[in-house]
Amino acid sequence: MSLWGGAFLQPSDDDLKALNDSLRFDKRMYRQDIDGSIAYAQAIRDAGILDAKEAITLIQGLKQVLQEIESGSFFFVAGDEDIHTAVERRLTEIVGAVGGKLHTGRSRNDQVATDFRLWVMKTIETLNDLLKTTQEALIEQAEQHTETLMAGYTHLQPAQPITVAHWLMSYFWMLQRDRERLRDARKRTSFSPLGSGALAGTPLAIDRVKLANNLGFTHVSMNSLDAVSDRDFVAETLFTLAMTGVHLSRFAEDVIIFSNPNFGYIRLNDRYSTGSSLMPQKRNADPMELARGKAGRLIGNLTGLLATLKGLPTSYNKDLQEDKEALFDSVDTLSALLPVLIAVIKTLTFNTERLTASLTQDMLATDLADYLVNKGLPFREAHHIVGRVVRYASDNGLEMSQLPLEFLSDQSALFTEDVRQVFDFKQSVAKRATLGGTAPSAVNQQIETAKETLQNT
Amino acid sequence: MSLWGGAFLQPSDDDLKALNDSLRFDKRMYRQDIDGSIAYAQAIRDAGILDAKEAITLIQGLKQVLQEIESGSFFFVAGDEDIHTAVERRLTEIVGAVGGKLHTGRSRNDQVATDFRLWVMKTIETLNDLLKTTQEALIEQAEQHTETLMAGYTHLQPAQPITVAHWLMSYFWMLQRDRERLRDARKRTSFSPLGSGALAGTPLAIDRVKLANNLGFTHVSMNSLDAVSDRDFVAETLFTLAMTGVHLSRFAEDVIIFSNPNFGYIRLNDRYSTGSSLMPQKRNADPMELARGKAGRLIGNLTGLLATLKGLPTSYNKDLQEDKEALFDSVDTLSALLPVLIAVIKTLTFNTERLTASLTQDMLATDLADYLVNKGLPFREAHHIVGRVVRYASDNGLEMSQLPLEFLSDQSALFTEDVRQVFDFKQSVAKRATLGGTAPSAVNQQIETAKETLQNT
Amino acid sequence: MSLWGGAFLQPSDDDLKALNDSLRFDKRMYRQDIDGSIAYAQAIRDAGILDAKEAITLIQGLKQVLQEIESGSFFFVAGDEDIHTAVERRLTEIVGAVGGKLHTGRSRNDQVATDFRLWVMKTIETLNDLLKTTQEALIEQAEQHTETLMAGYTHLQPAQPITVAHWLMSYFWMLQRDRERLRDARKRTSFSPLGSGALAGTPLAIDRVKLANNLGFTHVSMNSLDAVSDRDFVAETLFTLAMTGVHLSRFAEDVIIFSNPNFGYIRLNDRYSTGSSLMPQKRNADPMELARGKAGRLIGNLTGLLATLKGLPTSYNKDLQEDKEALFDSVDTLSALLPVLIAVIKTLTFNTERLTASLTQDMLATDLADYLVNKGLPFREAHHIVGRVVRYASDNGLEMSQLPLEFLSDQSALFTEDVRQVFDFKQSVAKRATLGGTAPSAVNQQIETAKETLQNT
Amino acid sequence: MSLWGGAFLQPSDDDLKALNDSLRFDKRMYRQDIDGSIAYAQAIRDAGILDAKEAITLIQGLKQVLQEIESGSFFFVAGDEDIHTAVERRLTEIVGAVGGKLHTGRSRNDQVATDFRLWVMKTIETLNDLLKTTQEALIEQAEQHTETLMAGYTHLQPAQPITVAHWLMSYFWMLQRDRERLRDARKRTSFSPLGSGALAGTPLAIDRVKLANNLGFTHVSMNSLDAVSDRDFVAETLFTLAMTGVHLSRFAEDVIIFSNPNFGYIRLNDRYSTGSSLMPQKRNADPMELARGKAGRLIGNLTGLLATLKGLPTSYNKDLQEDKEALFDSVDTLSALLPVLIAVIKTLTFNTERLTASLTQDMLATDLADYLVNKGLPFREAHHIVGRVVRYASDNGLEMSQLPLEFLSDQSALFTEDVRQVFDFKQSVAKRATLGGTAPSAVNQQIETAKETLQNT
Questions:
Q1: Cβ neighbours of D238 (radius 10 Å)
Q2: pTM, entire model
Q3: Nearest CA in chain D to B284
Q4: How close C179 gets to chain B, by Cα (Å)?
Q5: Which of B107, C155, C254, D185 is 20 to 30 Å from the Cα of B34, by its Cα?
Q6: Residues C98, A399: Cα–Cα separation, whole Å
Q7: Could you report the per-residue pLDDT of B260-276, keeping only the tens digit for each?
């Protein structure tokens, strides 16, 4: 019989039970539920609801339940509609009627919200660590390639030469923002709803601040109606994870394209490529395709929860039970994805021959314009002149460096013999040495800053 | 060792396996996979790839695999990365090397697409039946209440009296459109991709049309690149289910509001109400709140898949593996929800006392305007006059029928003694007898049409 | 003063007006509004509400309003909160008090729904034509390239040789499904809500079927509550357009990748490429990037509307006013995009040299496996053997055709001199001649079917 | 001729222009564009690219362009494809060829990103102020109603008595979190990309930190590839606004339900209610319905951008042009909505008679259980006993306070005469005096904390 059944004559319908019951997915919060109950037992002992002995009995009972669950000797029974009733049911089996006192002044509404927040706070730490390890892997690879040149792209068209390290580090900063967003989301998760009752607050003289601190919360909620229905922390975490998914999808897209044989810049380790049942020569970047594809799912989980929350009436509504599966799925998705991506990054190899071959002189067009600008020509004019030069070279199947000086000086008298120095990829890169630029010197500085950032965040 | 491992020296990484493997969710397509393989064995026998004996061996082996799965004697082993490899692995254990011939000219790409389409076609039938039963429940209730009056709302403000049956039947037509959309989605699912190979078509002389028909498809795909990557049928089905979810969420919202005690129009059966752990008097419409909330999840599943599909390069990409979990989740959601909703509808009771009390004379304002219009006043003028009458009545705490005739005739000389007849809710309803109107006569006709529609669709 | 102001003492707030007023975007439905009013005037004349002269006056007045709008001599005035009030206001200025009769028995609720459905029905035709033209452009290009070979990809890894026409035609079928979805959406749009009143139906003896047919609707709505709040047709159209956007985004991705210089398969016409302000050599496929990016917006418009509809109470709610801007935006997006894409497709040029160079012998691995299969080896074994061959060739920097026969026959005794015939791309393609395959013969048949399809749909 | 046209022989297609051009929507960033250019002119002067006189000329020219735009004397011309080219075109008209120097080392990519970030930073301030004013309006109303009682709901079922102020304040804290999220989003927006060039960094010796500070940025971006393509700040702002929209939709839902006549708790001021064209008595809460409905649009804008960003290749792609309209629309939506909501809140009136009538004794069931708990009964037992009492009272049409003591003491011997004191709503509320509870004392404390929070954030 369910805990709330007192007022009903008929048992609830089986189909309804199947629809209602959340044990299937919320059982993973068992530890948070027990931690919350232990802290709550202490709080209502302090408030005079339990005497010292009752409190000890309950706490020892709860610890036994925890031990049973973790050792695998705990069995769910029919009627355990969620992890909260399961724990309380077993507790009462162990400690007897005093188990019925634990719920005094507490509602499923504030209990569930507390458990879930604790779970999210812990999970954010875990994801933060995974992301940090991903960042470290990027730095590790970048340090090997601060001088390796490659074509830099905009619009997937070769634009200017860059360093491989610069490309790798661009993803470092995306993940850094993701971690900062996670930290901010955690900050707003760390508000204890415990002591809000079902909706109106508790009539017990509970010290909510002490109770919150005992559980690791930094703040307490200030309004009980809000406390039992606030799922902003779920939506915000889902958003952060969707954003992370988008970043990983962009990295994945790059790796997929760069490991296409026409590029051939990158080779995934055999362990992270898969073949085809029909085409044995294929080296499919499956994990990267999954990384790209799963961004969709992360976006969908966010969208779904926001739509669920939209238009809900005041305070707790059962619709809110939809909060967990979406988040669990997003967390599981990234928890499965990131270890693979870390391994992929660590074992990426770069084909320097192909990278070098990717550099073509038209990628120095900007440098050629800069040459004219340095000689005093306004940039816009330089730009138009170089545009004509590029087209001429292209139309005649020549490299720009093969164009006769006479042709160039016909275009602008500012072109003189020293123009030859422009056609050097290494120098082109080295020039972009300002903060955030692609020059090895700037990239080394970038990597230093990245390392400091990792230490401090 | 995985089936595609021939070209690789190192085993794939465990984390990657966990990420890649789809057995966890695609095993529910075991029957479609086996059906597809049986039909394919026949097709390649007809094409001369298998001799008659080999074909029989394979088909009998496949039937044994099916029997093992359905009887629970089938065990998955490490290396079964998806249902397709699991079935083929077991088949080869049973029939020996000839099992390796089944895959001739077939790719995982066309195999998976075939299995999934078959599964979707079957599932659409199941959902169609559930929706039809929901519609029947609505009709059943409506037939009890073709003459029961209630307040009709727009903007959740009482507007005009309607019949309860009319309200119930409004949901019938929403579900009817959903079923028609499902039927259209099924029509576009019923294209067989089998015989498309990995991407370029099959070199075997397979009769694709016969093969398709054997499997229950009505059409064959016309382009192999499209065939292996077309997931429109998934997105379209997800859209249809999201739309259904939206309709159910609207019904849920009505039921939740109408069963609030301030309304009290509706009482959910005890079996479909739940209490509160702290407030035993509550009669929460939990299944309706879940119905409302789960619309979000259905929307999220659709959004997620569309985002996954967006920007994919030509032909098959591993991202497409993300198609199944979203659809399985939407299907499971509605499969869990609809039986409960059907039971809720069948056991709904209406509180006629409260429904009658919901009818207030200001809901006859339109009828009063119609009265003036019938006497020749342009509608806009009638409207303004009645507006003043309503406000006067409201300001003076009077029902409109209590206003002295002198007052009314001061507003318009057209008001005469016969205005008293306007203040009759039953007559107000009876007047709206045009097709689709709320009059009992029109609603009876509507129900008849609904029944015919059910028989024909 | 607004038309509904009679019951209010204070004018509505300016900010509210700005929020409420929909004239800004709904004015584009002026023709549908006037058409609807003309038909409605005829219907209420037939129902005896208007005499023949009044009806003529109203209809002539409405035609004058239309003429004024189309000639640019119509001016909106303060108080025109939407196109419906603007038209009615001007009508009344022209025809006097009889203008106030037009609204008899009609509500803004059924009027707006009618206008919007008419607009959607017309717009679907327009989009259908644009999509058809896009399909024709694909066929036109495909016909030039039924024998041009290129690498076919899965996972963006070269897999098997295909024909360019086959690649182009894969998009034909996606758009075909989109058009069929549009047709189905139109079918469900073609239900006239006119005569549903505000929510409860009309008390007038209107022949709703005749009225519907006069306006071009094929059906009438069967339930007035549903009729005034059904926005399925908007959501379904938005879904269809989002799906189209996804298809175009895939085509765009291909074109962007294929026009990257490392591929160089495709060259966009100068008119449809853009340069860079800093890098004059760039040939950015801007329209394709926009096509890819705008798929997001189309998905967002769909998601947004579904979230808006979720959980709405019975019948009309003002939330429904949010239906139009989303659809207008999706329609405008595709209306701007498709003409550019059509031009892009028509002017695409293919670099046959680069396409030929894209064909590498490892793409014949499947053919090599087929060779062994044809000699009786089960496919799975053939697959493993060829896997070893591919790796050996790759490790030794050799083409497969350069491998000595001794090496091959060491792998399998089935390899004999005739294996040389396998290494022919043209033959590889020609073999895939089954329906939907990439062989020129099959592609020609595909194109024929496509042309017939265009004629019939 | 467009600025990048140098390399092209043919003019760009008109349709393409229409598709590409962003002037239509990006012109609202004119001030940020000019501010950015002024600061950039100073930076390249400091870097020696401009001499002092040239810098003054450019800056004065830019100020004149600003003045022309703000005074309405600026005219866009054909070829002004975005605000950046329009400003530069006009600048060059004013200052001559030196205008062509402004773009030295700057790309459209870093320029656009800079302008948009500046615009977002400013806009966040504006929205923050609007939200703060909304919070102040809530406090203002709450202070009037710290002792006004009403039914508190969970599941839209009456649960426990609460104070009106407590209900109002629940929305204060939601908006507070929204403002904190905005602040965090602004923090991550405040990174200057200027000096990143097109993708690889600038070759000029620009002091990027000084340049950033001059523009009001607190940080500079650390990687140029990331800098030109990072749109996290847009997505994060869109998420924050969607979350705000969800909160407003919940408030809207409450107000819509509470102003339904069956509730009658709330009356919207006439200025913020609208009538119906057919039903003059209606008092539709249109602005609240729009608030509820527009949450969908805000969710859609977020979803759309995330889908657009998903899977983009490295660095800048034209797809990113899709970032602005979504954000502009979300900002405009809230900018139109919030002033109306503020006015609605300020002018809300509460019907204390109806609020009092909403309190029914079954809402004291929890208090009755607490009564037994205080006498030593475990909560779970108390709960079951009270459940039976509630059902008995309900079945017999009695208030709980009307039940004879004998009946109660039959249920539990702990019920004695003093049970009568339980049936007092005021006392029930007053008991919930813990932090965050609904008691007037706790609510007063809550309001004080809220005021302090407003001062500090």
A1: 29
A2: 0.96
A3: D155
A4: 12
A5: C155
A6: 80
A7: 999 999 999 988 888 76
